[in-house]
Amino acid sequence: MPSSPSPVLDEIRSVPQRGSRGASASARSMPVPPPALAIRIPVRLAGLVLLGLVAICLSALASWSVDDPSFSYATAKVPANWLGFPGAVIADALFQVFGLAALALLVPPALWGWAFARRRMPTHMG
């Protein structure tokens, strides 16, 4: 059975309240939804920021070297990492804490960022 596509943020509307008497009482008690532009821009921006952070981590991991200076390895050598000293620190911390699983741990945030950039609500965040 095909799954339904995730809803676009523009399709999400507020549901009228049950049990209100009369249309005028219902119209007065319902909050006014924000304009679609006020929802789209922050969600897309959050998605692009998330994708940027994943790209920074991937480029730091791709150029990781065991001889790079970091907080756990002091040397006077110039870092060979593409992002310099910050990239060497990020890569060293990710590899020390997660090992090669750091690459797999970057997949869900990348998918969430892509979904947010496309204005889709991820159906399974877990």
SSE class: mainly alpha
User: What general form does the structure show?
Assistant: elongated
Instruction: Give the termini distance in whole angstroms.
Output: 22 Å
Query: Helical segment tally?
Result: 5
Q: Write down the Rg.
A: 23 Å
Query: Which residue ranges are poorly predicted, with pLDDT under 50 across at least 5 consecutive positions?
Result: none
| N to C succession of SSEs | HHHHH
Q: What's the main sheet like?
A: none
Strand content: under 5%
How many strand segments?
A: 0
Mean of pLDDT: 81
How is this fold's topology laid out?
Layout: H1 23-29, H2 36-62, H3 84-98, H4 101-105, H5 107-117
Explain this structure to me?
This protein has 126 residues and is an all-alpha fold. It has a domain at 37-117. Helices cover 52% and strands 0% of the residues. It has 5 helices and no strands. It has helices spanning 23-29, 36-62, 84-98, 101-105, 107-117. Helix 2 (36-62) crosses helix 3 (84-98) and helix 2 (36-62) packs antiparallel against helix 5. The mean pLDDT is 81.
Q: Which labels suit this protein?
A:
0% strand, 126 residues
Please provide a brief summary of the model.
This protein is mainly alpha-helical. It is built from 5 helices and no strands.
